[in-house]
UniProtKB/TrEMBL annotation:
Positions contributing to Mg(2+) binding: 62, 275, 277, 279
Protein known as: Phosphoacetylglucosamine mutase
Pathway(s) it belongs to: Nucleotide-sugar biosynthesis; UDP-N-acetyl-alpha-D-glucosamine biosynthesis; N-acetyl-alpha-D-glucosamine 1-phosphate from alpha-D-glucosamine 6-phosphate (route I): step 2/2
Domain of life: Eukaryota
Swiss-Prot/TrEMBL cofactor(s): Mg(2+)
Length: 530
């Protein structure tokens, strides 16, 4: 059957312009059938372009509500789809039904793709109700291209990234691990035991899994780590899709700055919250007065930054360390990293692809968005230095090198991974013998607030300076600047979301009341666009 034949079952809805945003295509699941079908075609083309290397496709809408879904591509080494192909993805998704074959032909000729190469694609999905139907549409696109594909079923997003990289590096000096879900657990379990060889008691945490796919996957890993890891998993109803991300999970906890439903932690007990596809994590705890404290992506970056900086000094291998953040990073965290850790900070636009790219400039690049999405990258040069350091160096140096090597396996370097990041944080806390309060005491967040405003056309909102300033609509940035000046330590910015049909407003200031007031004033400016 030809592309046109398959396409008849997947007509493009009228009047919609699909865009490949911060995390691929994402919207109401009912609108995504034709997109999933065409992403199947695109994934096959991308694999052929990459000489038959395996491409990943993940069906997920991560933190978004249950009726949404999304689809994104994963490149051979587990990174996000190369930016130049995002344009082709959108072109293919928006081609009229009767011009789809012509669009494919024009991409083949423009990119000089050898269509005699057999394409290889792996597929994963989160626990949403709409997932199986979208996978079926995707498979039709792959069949239309005569691609070879393997559907792994339910996975976390980072597991699909891991599997994609593991397949493509198998049998090479850069082999990333066994290319299976089991291989993922084995790699993490072995690395964890190496990272904390002398534990007095298991690493402990209560984990809110947002009623998503992270719950069974974390449980599977914990089963292999009896005596090393003891997790209490809550909000684990992944077989009840309407409960996904509902009043729980990383996005809820971060945005509302409150505990998720379904949890009543003891004072100073560490609580972690994953998002729906387990690629983000934030932590929290309550104190003895039941006050809530958030330990978000900024706090993770500073904790991990502190530990890695110490280890790098002790390893004495001349490794550069840097931290990458976005405009959402709390001003206090950036100040702490620069002034106390003496580590350079780079700011990029929102979206893992931007942070990931910037982190690659360092030997060890730590990147975290405030919302808890992040990881640590070890450059190939750093890996070689660590692997080839003399065995008989001093004991402190040797221990530091071994710890960095264990971390480089424990950390999922393809993308932010809630499970891997959970283990990383628990390791650093255990080594320092810290609880959440000691972790939190490094610096105090400036009070802040993140709001969402639905406007008629979010594409009007264009930014510059790593999204910290608006260039459009005309005049709006001047108004924001004027109002920010009125607040002590005030900072605020507005940007269009790439995953939701809304504009986001961030504000921070010296007190909670001021941060709330600043956010309110800036949000008011947006009423004119509603
Ligand atoms: C995705 C991206 C993140 C981004 C988040 C929110 O996360 O991977 O990099 O921070 O969306 O983006 P925006 O503010 O543009 O909506 P996830 O966890 O939803 O895949």
């Amino acid at each position: 059957m030809s592309i046109d034949d398959f396409s008849k079952d997947h007509p493009k809805p009228d009047g919609i312009n699909f865009g490949y945003g911060t995390a691929g295509f994402r919207m109401k699941a009912t609108l995504l059938d034709s997109v999933a079908f065409r992403v199947g075609i695109l994934a096959a083309l991308r694999s052929q372009f990459k000489k038959g290397q395996t491409i990943g496709v993940m069906i997920t809408a991560s933190h978004n509500p249950p009726p949404d879904n999304g689809v994104k591509l994963v490149d051979p080494l587990g990174s996000m789809l190369e930016a130049s192909w995002e344009v082709y993805a959108a072109e293919l998704a928006n081609a009229p039904d009767n011009q789809l074959q012509a669009k494919v032909d024009s991409l083949v000729s423009k990119l000089n793709i050898d269509t005699s190469v057999r394409a290889h694609v792996v597929i994963g999905r989160d626990s949403r109700e709409s997932g199986p139907a979208l996978v079926a549409a995707l498979e039709d696109g792959l069949k239309a291209m005569n691609a070879n594909y393997n559907n792994y079923g339910l996975l976390t997003t980072p597991q699909l990234h891991y599997i994609t990289r593991a397949i493509n590096t198998k049998g090479t000096p850069d082999a990333y691990g066994a290319p299976t879900e089991e291989g993922y657990y084995e790699k993490l379990a072995n690395a964890l035991k190496k990272a904390v060889p002398d534990l007095d008691e298991p690493l402990k945490c209560v984990v809110d899994c947002a009623n998503g796919i992270g719950a069974p996957k974390l449980r599977a890993l914990a089963a292999m780590l009896d005596g090393t890891l003891s997790v209490t998993i809550v909000n684990d109803q992944y077989k009840e899709p309407p409960m996904l991300n509902m009043d729980c999970g990383a996005d809820y906890v971060k945005t509302n700055q409150r505990l998720p439903n379904g949890v009543t932690p003891e004072p100073y007990q560490l609580l972690a919250s994953f998002d729906g596809d387990a690629d983000r994590i934030v932590f929290s705890y309550v104190d003895d007065k039941k006050a809530f404290h958030l330990l978000d992506g900024d706090k993770i970056a500073t904790l991990v930054g502190m530990y890695i900086t110490e280890l790098s000094k002790e390893a004495d291998l001349d490794l550069s360390v840097g931290v990458v953040q976005t405009a959402y990073a709390n001003g206090s965290s950036t100040k702490y990293i620069v002034d106390n850790l003496k580590v350079p900070v780079v700011c990029t636009p929102t979206g893992v692809k931007h942070l990931h790219h910037a982190a690659e400039a360092f030997d060890i690049g730590i990147y975290f968005e405030a919302n808890g999405h992040g990881t640590v990258l070890f450059s190939p040069a750093a890996q070689i230095k660590l692997q080839t350091a003399p065995e008989d160096c001093g004991p402190v140096q040797r221990r530091a090198i071994d710890s960095l090597l264990a971390l480089s396996d424990l950390i999922n370097q393809t993308v932010g991974d809630a499970i891997s990041d959970l283990l990383l944080v628990l390791v650093v806390l255990a080594i320092n013998r810290w609880g959440p309060e000691e972790w939190d005491s490094a610096y105090k967040d400036l009070p802040n607030r993140l709001d969402k405003v639905v406007v008629k056309d979010r594409s009007l909102f264009k930014t510059t300076d790593a999204e910290r300033r608006l260039t459009s609509p005309p005049g709006l940035q001047d108004k924001i600047d004027e109002v920010v000046k009125m607040f002590n330590q005030g900072r605020s910015f507005v940007r269009a979301s790439g995953t939701e049909d809304a504009v986001r407003v961030y504000a921070e200031a010296a007190s909670k009341a001021e941060a709330d007031a600043l956010s309110g004033r800036v949000s008011q400016f947006l009423h004119a666009f509603q």
